[in-house]
Amino acid sequence: MSNLRLIFVFLALVLVTQFTNATVLMKPTPLTGLEYPDILSGAYQENITTPETFLGFKLGERTASPEQINALVNLWAKESDKVQIVEYARSYENRALHYLMISTPNNLSRLPDIKANIAQLSEPAKLSASKIKQLIEDTPATAWMAYSIHGNENSGADGALALIYHLIASKNNDVNELLANMVVLVDPMMNPDGRARFTKRLEESRGTAPNIDDNSLLHSGTWPFGRTNHYYFDLNRDFYFAVNPESRGRIKAINQWFPQLMIDGHEMGPQDTYLFGPPREPLNVHIPASTRKWSKVFSLDHAEKFDENNWPYYTGEWFENLYPGYSNYAEYKGSMHILYEQASTDEDGIKLASGKIRTFKEAVDHQFTSSMANLTTLSKHSKAMYQDFVQFRKGHVATKGQYSNRSFVVLPTGNHYRTQRFLDLLDIQGFEYQQTTKSFTVSKAKNQLGQNLTKVTVPKGSIVINNRQYDAPLLATLLEFDTEIKDQVLIEERQKTLRNGSSVMYDTTAWNITMMYGLEALEVNENITKNLTNYQAPTPQFTERENTIAYLVDGATDSSVAFAARLLEQGVKVRVLDKEGKFNQQGFARGSVVVYHYDNTMDKSKLKTLVKQTANETNSSLVAINQGLGDGDLPDIGGESFKLLTAPKVGLISQNGINFYDLGSIWHLLDTELGIRHSHLNQEFLANTDLRAYNVLVLPSRFYGELPKHVVKQIGQWVTNGGTLIVSGSSANQLLATEKFTQVKLLKDSFKESEEYNLALFQEWLAKQSTISNAKQVAANKVSNDIWYPWQDIKALKPMDEKALKQWNNWNQRFMPSGAITATRTDQKHWLTYGVPEQLPVLTSNLPLLMSKGGSDAVVRFGQYVSNSKAEASQIGWSTIPAANDVYLRMSGLLWPEAAQRITNAAYLTREAKGKGQIILFAGEPNFRGASKGTARLLLNAIVYGPGLGTQPFINL
């Protein structure tokens, strides 16, 4: 080694020594109150690796990372004969999700028989009483113990490690007896991607001294936090939408077991204590009475354990069970569900308002002790719970039971892609369904507007889901149009709303799947059994022809948009048909995607291969045509109805303040539905970003804050130059308040011009009429002095003045829903509504209500007109309902009549030109939880078709 290198090594050692000494010298001031005994005590088997040995710290001293948890549970599965491990899913970031089956070696050796016993008990109608008794005696208890579905609620997963080790390694006789009577299924970490984000932030935020201030970065976290998965989905709202792989795998696994007990370990605010069941009202009416009975039994034992330790706790209060998308969905199948909510306590501990310090180790201990207490209760009552389970399931298929005479009918649609997605969801939940072989009539039915109909025709090809099946409660909950809410709940909700604007509802009050998916359906008051066959999913077809001039994918199906987007990204020239067409005797819906040989210079065989490949990738049926002349007056292939598209270059605005749920659902849509490239743009750097690289900007809804004014100005200029700006939810508020940015206004800012907005409504309504109001005068030679004008009705109704409208708006605004499904009417002449029905269900909450007239298009408006010859013209707030019409709004969920009045006739979706570009505003979040497929189609259209249909040529870099 040269002298020079020796000198460098010496200097490096000096620096390292000095730094190390400095670090050692900077000792933190000691804190009292951080002492807490070890969570695990007693005698344990020496051949099972201890958590401390593997992790390098005792349970509860630090947070175990996803990698550590997965490695440790796999190690234990190899070391112990009391555990078997199953990988049930992979996350988007390719992390494994496991559940562990823990019991005695004898029970584990007969797991197939145990699962078979449970399967028989879940379908008990044909079993004899003696067979049921025998099965119950031979079947151990089952419990599904699940933790940390929110990745930053960390104590649950660490508590799961304590539970697993205690069950497999303890020498305690009570533990061994427990396992002899039970199979414990532990899902230790339900959201590994979110936990990875959270533990990385913990690592980055650690200091030399314990930080017990819950305002500090260590405890508060940073956007987008670790709560959600890779695409920022809240997995605890995904148990029946099943959008994400974590949920889909978990649901399938749980449904194989019908566990008697299911717990879900969460966290809540740091200054809180500990919550467990039973919940308070509102409770979903389809949750079985037996579950409510057992919930009280479990809570008594649970409370006793906490009292022994002098730990504070509570039940109910804010915790209700109306929405079925949580982990408690298993209750509808017969499980006993218990929620744990531990006050958030990250590694260093939290100083409480009382001055006491709660350590992370104590928080983990709460989760562990709760788990053991609940398992002990289950062991005592398992046989009685099995008996209730059997009676519960029997009642669902009884000929005179609660669910005996009701069927749900999903009417045929050209949107085969979406229908298949709907049926995939039914398959995941284990529901049975069939398809009609011919049309027939039912005596009574109810449609999604709540209208009771008589002698209704059920068309051939309809999907029929009879409610009389073993999973009837969950099926009814997900498919019935309206969920019952008790009068006492409504009274309390009304009182809270009036008193201080609070609510007893924890989540959305509407979730009907057919409405969320934008599929037309009926509720029929009979158990339909005739004219049915097993459903056969249509497979995508390729219809070939000689001398092909173009390829088409029908615009009725959602997959057509992805087909267009992927081809555009590969440089193929693509057109879209803006009205219905017919070629080679085959009809095509408006919005159909056309790849025309004349547009493309690519070799014909190469283009054919590329088009077929893209059709296969997007599950689209592809039709080749060799006739460009449309039938009759229908479009011809060289006419103006074939609009040339422009490839979208998408920028998705992201980072602090943005609603990461909305952002994630849009990101997920771009990746999974379209599969096209796009860029996430940090809103804090937009001022230094050359936006000419993009022709589409998507601005999701916001949690807090606003864009800087100079950035709004910059975006406005970008739009003027030819960009398509798509804005959702609360982000519209800032732009609507910015002078001269948009012509659209918020409802509260429109009252000076209320008559003009009302007149615009009449103009839209008249434009859809098939009769002429002044028909008699059209052929007259004499100038008529008797012409009807829309404002005549307005004057006759004496509309409210500006002051009265403001008062009306302020009063009604306090009653806006937390989540109800409302009916909207769509402009069927507008390109944004390709593949969208005239009546579209929209999930509505306290969203900005958009007012449109003149230069802006109201593409989707709230309220559906229904003809009623006896109805006189009427006034609702600022708007007039034309004579001979009723307006329907509420489809599902809690919607106070005051809110219904305020929402009616406002716009959900607007589009306006701005210079060479356009602004598209969504009042809500169009891809809510990845499940609102009806409104998501509007967003897909906006992203993919906007640059070609709504703007003038855009100059790109």
UniProtKB/TrEMBL annotation:
Keywords: Hydrolase, Metalloprotease, Protease, Zinc
GO cellular component: extracellular space
The organism of origin for this protein: Thalassotalea algicola
Protein name per the record: Peptidase
CDD domains associated with the record: A4_beta-galactosidase_middle_domain
Similarity section: Belongs to the peptidase M14 family.
GO molecular function: metallocarboxypeptidase activity; zinc ion binding
Domain Peptidase M14: 71-246
